[in-house]
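User: For my dataset I need records formatted as: sequence, then structure tokens, nothing else. Please produce one.
Assistant:
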Amino acid sequence: MAKIGIIGAGSWGIALSVLLHNNGHTITVWSALPQEIEQLKACHEHKEKLPGVKLAEDILFTTDLSNAVKEMDILVLAVPSSFTRETAHRMAGFVENGQIIVNVAKGIEEATLMTLSQVIEDEIPQADVAVLSGPSHAEEVGKGIPTTIVVGASSRATAEKIQNIFMSDVFRVYTSPDVLGIELGAALKNVVALAAGIADGLGYGDNTKAALITRGMAEISRLGMAMGGKFETFSGLSGIGDLIVTCASMHSRNRRAGILIGQGKTMEEAMAEVKMVVEGVFSTKAAMALAEKYHVELPIIEQVHEVLFCGKAAADAVKDLMIRDKKIEISGNWDA
């Protein structure tokens, strides 16, 4: 069995701690917040982020980053995307050459337009960086509800090692070499989920939701393939799979924030009410910068950007999407 350091004690880090402990591994959980660690030590439960999910008595909790990193077989980096670089920088001095880091956060760094694995590699070049993504709400993984996910890595050996460590009868893991595609799908689906939530907040129905998911996936695939991702990735677990669950579930913080925005609240008010990091807000600006860099049209994501950052009314954004110039969905020759 493996020794695993979980870097980040939010809902996803805690859920994966439960999963990996149930798989027989030795788990140490790190948080930068002393009060969070004290609560976990006292209650063996994260009452705010993942209430009702109990952690085993032999899971260790620490604020000492070196204790969670040194001599671990695998590190799971589970901090919000906006803290990935800072945390990786702090970890760098403790990480051994070739030590595996599995990033499970989803986002794109706004300042550099790097994916999170690229950020980690930039700060910890000696690490073997992989990503884990797919339709996987922490609330369900923590309760042992069957979930399927994909791990991306630069080598088959690393991907299969992670697959073996994470896989169980309630957590099925596939492997993929397309790290870039996995990360782009994971980050951009959060923006589309904001759009889906906005539509819900406006009182629109299933037709609207289905259109946003379908055309949103077209936008994600278009940009992702322009950047070098594989089409199969965007039609797989970390693409359409993660998009469906994030747009449809009330576990989704991005959808919940979108609903509040559709009901008339500002982005700041919505984020405050959700009380969790809404990754899609941070990814929206990065997506628009990437669209400009790669000359790709992203009409849905563009309208989300207008609502979030330019004060555009959500209903006007939907109207502008509906009255855009006529388009062809699938190109080709017509039969005579």
